[in-house]
Amino acid sequence: MTATAARPGSNGAGGRAERFARPVLLAFLLVAAADLAGLLAGAETVHLVAKPLLMPLLAGYAVLRGAPRLLVAALLFGWGGDVFLLADNDLAFLVGMGSFAVGHVCYLTLFGRGEGRGRAPAPLVTGAGYAVVLVVFLVLIWPDLPADLRIPLTGYSLLLTAMAWRAGVFGPYAAAGGALFLLSDALIATGIAEWPQAPAPDFWVMLTYIAAQALLTLGVLTKHKTQHKTKRKPGE
Q1: CB neighbours of 147 closer than 8 A, spacing ≥ 6?
Q2: Among 188, 187, 176, residue whose Cα is nearest residue 213
Q3: CA distance 181 to 179
Q4: According to a count of CB atoms within 10 Å of the terminal CB, is the N or C end of the chain lower?
Q5: Residues 34/50, Cβ–Cβ less than 8 Å
Q6: What separation, in Å, do the N-terminal and C-terminal C-alpha atoms of the chain show?
Q7: Among residues 216, 214, 121, 92, which one has the least CA distance to residue 164?
Q8: pLDDT for 136-189, tens place per residue?
Q9: pTM score > 0.70 for this model?
Q10: For the CA atoms of 67, 27, 187, 147, what is the dihedral angle to 10 degrees?
Q11: Half-sphere exposure for 96 (CA within 13 Å, toward CB)
Q12: DSSP state, residue 200
């Protein structure tokens, strides 16, 4: 039960939200499974239908669980990125990347507020590790990237890496989600650079992406619920 549902006088509305949350989460998991199965089977139509449904379902689940607005906004900007990246042209790719970038700003703002509420700051050692990985990756991939995408991808990568690092403020689930988000986008970048790919590369991109957004959501919801519980006095 959510912290909101547990408050006196809110059992009715909170209980109804909780009952709706589980079916929405199940729908998200089923659509995710269908999308991944479609990618493995080479069924492009399944992917075109399933992918745009993923983030709205996850955002709906987050809303029903009383999530912070910034989490919902981050997921919906992720949905915008998902939709634009379905189009196979450079303009749509840049717009989609921009939508994801705004989503990362939402995550960063949320994580920054988390640090200001008594949570431990993101470890500098972890940040240094992420910085080293980013620099090495960019140095290696830079010559193989299209010239017009080098600067936008570099800026986006800096923002994404900062988000992945700061995600640790909200615990291990969010930290793992941030790391997987970074991995997912690194796989996309290697495809753009035409590096050798694993079999079914789109499957691995979506698997890591779906897991990343789900873990980020779980991490934020877990901390949000804990925070509300600690604000309540014993016996309330």
Answers
A1: none
A2: 176
A3: 5
A4: C
A5: yes
A6: 15
A7: 216
A8: 999 999 999 999 999 999 999 999 999 999 999 999 999 999 999 999 999 999
A9: yes
A10: -70
A11: 17
A12: S
